[in-house]
Each structure stands twice: as structure tokens, then as C-alpha cells.
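Q: what sequence does this backbone want?
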């Protein structure tokens, strides 16, 4: 049973102040006769460092400068100013918008040079503003399209919404689909929790199998559907469940290099969001997914590794996130057997095998249950 826990979230006024301060820096540069510029960490793989103390990805010391001394740089700063103005107005009005909407909204801006060429450009600019302002996009009231990630299990929460607070039990008050994770999980207050651990599941099919078989009920487990590469909101909620409620985090994925990276993003963070690793990553997370050794031991149905799979596995042998005896042994085995397998391959031993045998044995070995 958890104590009530109220998240400490920045207020809209604080986020707006940070944006205005950033715009004022450009104005002051103009006033001083300087060419306006914005400095931020170089966002490339070569400038990503693995921090051994926190076990997460962080940006290194290299920086890049966006300067108005070139046409290209001036356009980027112009787009930054227009975006800052839009976000500040949005916060003034206590409204929100999606990243997709920002891209389309720019088409209505009076200065054509400020309009975005595609959504990837506007997405990256919002990330830049996060880095230089020290404020998360969620506090700008910016959200992605719905990720569809859900939670099912013995947890009672209070959620803040624009229609008032509401209390929800993530088993008793939801259907088979579970409780949908909001864009900003810091608006959730944990009230009561009878869960013993969290299981993050890569695929919807396996998530449904666990819920249908009552795995969440029998083992007092919170089943979190990752929906493939997990959204920031999913990773943030997972980290809060660990840090604030003390719940062990396990990650159940397919047995291929891309799924191992899903585990890596939950546990160690991702290169794209390295500026938020300490906010999103849970280094204590444990992998319970399909291992290459499982393919051998259970004689699972498989597919051959593609060339891109092989390249990814070889890259992971050099990846700081996978520098352990366990991962080295498993990746080398997979390269040797030249096979990969999905979670659903466990159904070859019966629909109940995963919940009656595979997961209980694996979790017991890991001292989770």
C-alpha cells in the first residue's frame, strides 16, 4: 500500500517565463549589436556519452551554434521566435496542442520563412527549446498524437484533467483495454497500490494474452503496454512507479535486436531524448524478454536474421547499454544461430504457457516473485 504521492510539476507560468527569457536573450543580442545566436549541445551520436554514475545516456561537451550570420541560421532562429510566441500564447490561454498541429499551424503564420517544411523540423525545434530552456515539452502543453499505451493492474490513482480531478482504479474502473496513460503522467497522483512489480510488454497481442489469462490479478502485477518503441509518457510513468512506489520494473519483448533497444530505452534512455534521461530512464529495469537461449531451449518457431538484424546486433556488442556478460553471451549466441523469435512464438507450447510457466519461472529466477 503506497502513501499518497503528489507530483511536483512546473507551473505554466514558470514554463512561459523560461520561454520569454529565451526570447529576451535574442532581443538583448540585437540591442548590443551582436548577431543573434542560440547555443545547444550537438545532437549527434558522437556527442552522446554513457554516464556510469546514473547509468543513462547524456549529451557530451560539444555544442552547436544557431547563428543569424547565415541565411540558414537566420531562418532557424526566426522559426524559433515564432514557435516561442505561439507556445507563450498557448500557456497564457491555458490550452494545449499536438506536435502535428504545430506543424500545420505554422502555415498560418504571416512570415512564410517561419513556416516549417515538414513535421520532423518542428518536432526537432521543440526538442531544441526543451534543451535550451530546461523545460519539458509537456510543460509547454505540447503533446504527441495518442500513443495508445495502457496500464492494467491493482493501482488506484487520482488524475488531473481539464474537467476536474477523477479517481480511477486501473483494474476495477476500466475495461479489458486498461487505463490509458495521459500525455503528462506527472498529473497523476498515486493513491493506493497493491502491485508487487511492473511488467512492460512490447506487443499488444502479448499484453492482451496476459490480461485475458489474469496474470495481473494472480501475480499482483501492473501490466504496461509499451506499444513498440515506448512513448515518453510511458517511460515517465514507468520511472515514477519505480522511484516513488519502489516497484521492480521488468521488460518483456520479442527476441530481436530492435526489441533489445526497446528495453534499452526504458532502462538506460535513448539518444534522441538524452537531455531527459534522468527524467525518463529506469536503470534498474530488468529484461525478461525472449532470449536467444530461449529459442534454443524451447525450440521456438523463428525467422532468419536479416542483414539489418545482423548489423544491429554487431552494433549492440559495442553499445554501452549492452556491455555485460549476459548481453554479450546472448547476442553472440543469436549471431551464431542466425535466428530471431517473437513473444507470440511461446504459443507453440500452448496459449497458457507464457503465463503458467515461462514468465513465473523467469520472474522467480530473478527474485521478482
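A:
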Amino acid at each position: 500500500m503506497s502513501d499518497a504521492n503528489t507530483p511536483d510539476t512546473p507551473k505554466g507560468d514558470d514554463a512561459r517565463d523560461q520561454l520569454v527569457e529565451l526570447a529576451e536573450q535574442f532581443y538583448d543580442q540585437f540591442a548590443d549589436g551582436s548577431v543573434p545566436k542560440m547555443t545547444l549541445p550537438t545532437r549527434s551520436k558522437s556527442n552522446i556519452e554513457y554516464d556510469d554514475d546514473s547509468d543513462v545516456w547524456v549529451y557530451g561537451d560539444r555544442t552547436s551554434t544557431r547563428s543569424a550570420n547565415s541565411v540558414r541560421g537566420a531562418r532557424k532562429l526566426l522559426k524559433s521566435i515564432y514557435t516561442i510566441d505561439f507556445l507563450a500564447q498557448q500557456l497564457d490561454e491555458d490550452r494545449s496542442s499536438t506536435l502535428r498541429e504545430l506543424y500545420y499551424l505554422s502555415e498560418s503564420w504571416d512570415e512564410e520563412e517561419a513556416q516549417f517544411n515538414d513535421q520532423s523540423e518542428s518536432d526537432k525545434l521543440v526538442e531544441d527549446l526543451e534543451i535550451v530552456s530546461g523545460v519539458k515539452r509537456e510543460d509547454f502543453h505540447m503533446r504527441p498524437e495518442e500513443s495508445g499505451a495502457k496500464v492494467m493492474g491493482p493501482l488506484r490513482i487520482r488524475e488531473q484533467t481539464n474537467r476536474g480531478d477523477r479517481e480511477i482504479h486501473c483494474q476495477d474502473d476500466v475495461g479489458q483495454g486498461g487505463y490509458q496513460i495521459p500525455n503528462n503522467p506527472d498529473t497523476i497522483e498515486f493513491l493506493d497500490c497493491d502491485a508487487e512489480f511492473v511488467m512492460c510488454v512490447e506487443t499488444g497481442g502479448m499484453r492482451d494474452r496476459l490480461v485475458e489469462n489474469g496474470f495481473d490479478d494472480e501475480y499482483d502485477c501492473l501490466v504496461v503496454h509499451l506499444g513498440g518503441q515506448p512513448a515518453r509518457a510511458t517511460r515517465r510513468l514507468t520511472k515514477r512507479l519505480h522511484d516513488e512506489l519502489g516497484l521492480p520494473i521488468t521488460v518483456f519483448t520479442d527476441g530481436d535486436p530492435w526489441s533489445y533497444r526497446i528495453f534499452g530505452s526504458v532502462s538506460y534512455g535513448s539518444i534522441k531524448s538524452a537531455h531527459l534521461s534522468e527524467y525518463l530512464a529506469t536503470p534498474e529495469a530488468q529484461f525478461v524478454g525472449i532470449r536467444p537461449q530461449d529459442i534454443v531451449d524451447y525450440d521456438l518457431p523463428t525467422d532468419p536474421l536479416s542483414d539489418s538484424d545482423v548489423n544491429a546486433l554487431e552494433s549492440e556488442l559495442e553499445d554501452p547499454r549492452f556491455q555485460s556478460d549476459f548481453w554479450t553471451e546472448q547476442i553472440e549466441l543469436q549471431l551464431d544461430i542466425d535466428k530471431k523469435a517473437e513473444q507470440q512464438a511461446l504459443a507453440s507450447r500452448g496459449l497458457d504457457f507464457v503465463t503458467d510457466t515461462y514468465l513465473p519461472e523467469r520472474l522467480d529466477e530473478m527474485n521478482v516473485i
